[in-house]
Amino acid sequence: MTKQQPWWNGAVIYQLIVRSFADGNGDGIGDLQGLANRLPYLRWLGVEAIWLTPIYPSPLQDGGYDITDFKSIHPELGDLAAFHRVLIAAHSHGIKVVMDLVLNHTSTLHPWFQRARWAPEGSPERDVYVWSDDPKRYADAPVLFRHFESSNWEWDEVAQQYYFHRFLRHQPDLNYDSPIVQKEMLDVVDFWIERGVDGFRLDAVPFLFETEGSRCEGLPETHEFLKRLRARVDSHGKDVLLLAEAIQPVEEAAPYLADDELHGAFNFALTAHLFASIASGTVEALRECLQAAQNAVGGSRWALPLRNHDELWLGDGHLVSEDVIQTIRAGLHQGQGHWLNWGINRRLAPLLNGDPGSNRVMHALLYSLPGLPCLYYGDELGMGDWPGLRDRDPNRTPMAWTPGRNGGFSTAPDPLLVLPPITAPGYDYRVVNVEVQKQLPGSLLNWHRRMLTCRKLLPALRNGGFELLECAHPGVIVYVRTNATMTVMVAANLSAAGASFRLDLSRWSGERTREVLWGCDFPPADADWFVYLAAHGFSWWLIGEVEESDNSSEDFEGQQDKLSPDPSGALGSPTSASSRRA
Q: Averaged over 443-462, what is the pLDDT?
């Protein structure tokens, strides 16, 4: 008997900030009731899971990642009963709920830290955090928030010692050498699993332990604790996702995906290479990154984001090479004014200079590569940002629902809004919003829905094998996704000029070839198959016939009829593709 795949295998995850998504009580702050009201939209869009950035009690000095209670809900967002209602409603819509779990640190206002600073030096209570008399310890650990902090140590007048913080000074690091810390954090995981949560995005997992002479990242002790965490999660007998945020090169992130450790990890190196390919118009480095990721950990265990609530994190030459960083900065015209810490502080659409072709082709890759595609709220609309807001707030502004006041986010007076809605030219919420785009067949929103529908109808894109195909054009990447019943071929032109190229499809010689998004037949596959893709164009092709035992064929044909583009091609791919026998 074949073992059933876990729910996250190839699932599309939609990241949202509850405070910025929808206001259900009119106080100007998004909340759990507002989220519950908008779940039908997420079902309509076609996502399979939602990832909630932290919703715990917090002084909000770092967007909720500075936590004062791991087992409660911030009162501005609701309470545990409201969260339970969201869980029940989401599950009724077939949507899983993934919580952000911050393992590495707390707020300085957390009761644990307040007890620690008053406790005697060397006591178990004090050792819940990392203390030192010498601020030069762990000198090889880089300062992550270099625009805000000059050191990883902060003096505490009460404790009369320095405390360690890899992030902001009001976020002291927990000491995982303490049995108390490990027990408490495992209890937190138990607490939320028992309430029905479907998974955890584990924030900043590489930094749990420290040792001299290292970057204090990904140490063996960290992996040992994560194995213990995995065992605790498995003991509940449920499919609960553990997804690692590890901003590291593929070879350093791969160990988190050991069979007895975590289920998934973000591939931020791939994100950087996607942007570098768009910026340069070449795909050689992208191909190498994709192959390296699959060689390191095959299958669909890499989470694939384009953007999220943070900056586009590029590192100090550790995550990707300095050449890749400079290609992105120059090719996407992102000067020093948009640079924050180690990355670029823009939303996706402005980062791509508002170019819809670049936006679509990158998402077409995201939705067809092996892994868990992650869609950031508002990116399905092409929402803009507000440069000049504090820290990373420029890309955390309210979701645009309607052309009405405040974009339909809230009925509160403007000064009470959590952040100002976007009114910048080209991104004004009165034009870029859900209500308007739903009514426009050629809108970006309807395009995303169509892509996600096609993805669901083609299981090979969800959990099939992956193989890069040879292509002579330097700006085009081609690969196939294959399972037992179907083969889907993907070609994408990441250059800003049209591309003509030939492919050797002799292994499928004579097989029927259909373009997925338009539903039209192409000449059968052969050894000399010609394709033209427009600038930033792409196509998905279904090669061969789906076996009758798989209902996907009938479903695919029926759904194609419902979603087929109008005569103007408004809903189709931005690609202009053709094929002929040579």
A: 95
Alpha helices (H) in 53-178, listed in sequence order: 80-92, 111-118
Report the SS3 class of residue 522: strand
* Distance of alpha carbon 372 from alpha carbon 113, whole angstroms: 36
CA distance 265 to 278: 24
β-partners of residue 303 are: 266, 372
311-347: buried (b, 16+ CB within 10 Å) or exposed (e) per residue?
A: bbbbbeeebbbeebbebbbebbebeeebbbbbbbbbb
Q: Which SS3 state, helix, strand or coil, does residue 280 take?
A: helix
Paired with 488 in beta bridges are 481, 542
CA-nearest of 224, 225, 218, 232 to 188 is: 232
As a whole number of angstroms, the distance between CA 513 and CA 433 comes to 36
Mean pLDDT value across residues 324-332: 78
Distances (CA, A) of 168 to 69, 143, 309, 341: 18, 10, 16, 12
| Residue 130 in tokens | 């990392």
User: Quick one: tokens of 379?
Assistant: 């990116």
pLDDT tens readout for residues 138-148? 999 999 888 78
Give the ranges where 374-495 is alpha helix by DSSP (H): 434-438, 444-457, 459-463
126-to-80, 179, 508 alpha-carbon distances in Å: 30, 13, 66
H or E segment and range at residue 34: helix 32-45
Distance CA 47, CA 452 (A): 7
Which listed residue (245, 311, 379, 515) is catalytic?
A: 245
**What are the backbone angles phi and psi of residue 148, rounded to the nearest 5°?**
-125, -25
pLDDT in the model for residue 311: 80
Please give the order of strands across the beta sheet that includes 339-340: 312-313, 343-344, 339-340
| C-alpha span between 450 and 111 (Å, rounded) | 48
Say how many Å lie between the first and final Cα of the chain, rounded. Answer: 46
pLDDT at 552: 47
133 is catalytic: no
3-class state of residue 177 by DSSP: coil
pLDDT tens string 374-402: 999 999 999 999 888 888 888 999 999 99
Would the pTM count as exceeding 0.85?
yes
* Nearest alpha carbon to residue 112 among 125, 123, 122, 99: 125
List phi, psi (to 5°) of 266: -70, 140
- Catalytic residue of the set 76, 173, 203, 526: 203
Q: Is 536 helix (H, G, I), strand (E, B) or coil?
A: coil
Distance of alpha carbon 300 from alpha carbon 298, whole angstroms: 7
- For residue 203, indicate whether it is catalytic: yes
Q: What domains lie within the chain, and their CATH numbers?
A: 13-107+177-451 (3.20.20.80), 111-164 (3.90.400.10), 463-563 (2.60.40.1180)
Residue type for 55, please?
I
**Rounded average pLDDT over 457-486:** 95
